[in-house]
Amino acid sequence: xxxxxxxxxxxxxxxxxxxxxxxxxxxxxxxTTRDLKLTVIRHFQNDSDKRxxxxxxxxxxxxxxxxxxxxxxxxxxxxxxxxxxxxVEYRDSNKVQFPGQLEDAKAAIRYVRANAxxxxxxxxxFVAMGESAGGxxxxxxxxxxxxxEFDKGDHLDVSSDVQVVVPFxxxxxxxxxxxxxxxxxxxxxxxxxxxxxPEDAPELDRAANPLSYIDQQTVPFLILHGTxxxxxxxxxxxxxxxxxxxxxxxxxxxxxNGAGHMDAQFLQPQVFEIIKNFLAKxx
Length: 283
Fold this sequence. Notes:
Rossmann fold, globular, alpha/beta, eight-stranded mixed sheet, BD-FAE-like_dom
């Protein structure tokens, strides 16, 4: 069979930049230097002046292991709908304790904002989205705009602020996450993150708890959680939602019936449409 067809261009092609170094941090026992990497999915440059909102993705892994590419294939729908996607590597708790992870996240945001022209990014429309431990990360980003004590490293002349956050089944308070989990298999991750058991170190726990920072400057939140999550308690996300509303912060929460932790339900078109509509409203 041989045919000549007309093809209508209805979406951009996409490029993917991998292994982009956004920061250099202490490496082996503080005696070496290691790179932190980004993966950036961006658009064919058809219009040199066009700028796109950016979604920064933070994968989970209990702060013990992370892969900045792990969910990008599932999230490419957002790129086709007009976003830049940035998968962010951050240090695990074997390398640094909190707030090192938050410092890494803010460094990644500053790097992309400082290089907005290179990556076609709209620096006024940055979204932080992540799952589980990465969900905790984005919640912390959403409540610490302007907290300069977490800005470390390069590009300190630009802001690390984000405009919207979307935590998927994110950890909120390390203490209540540990105490409220349906399994004790992951209790150790909170000790590793904080450097102490959260019940024995209330100041460390408070510092790593997004609820400690919420005020009327907090950015809009879209919270996603499943009713069958055996790792991170649903009630913690509900408490986060309630405190946001109490402080008059725009927030929506969607509870996925029957969804477990890291469930494929969260990656379905129905859920992505909810996210896209929320972002369209608040960016």
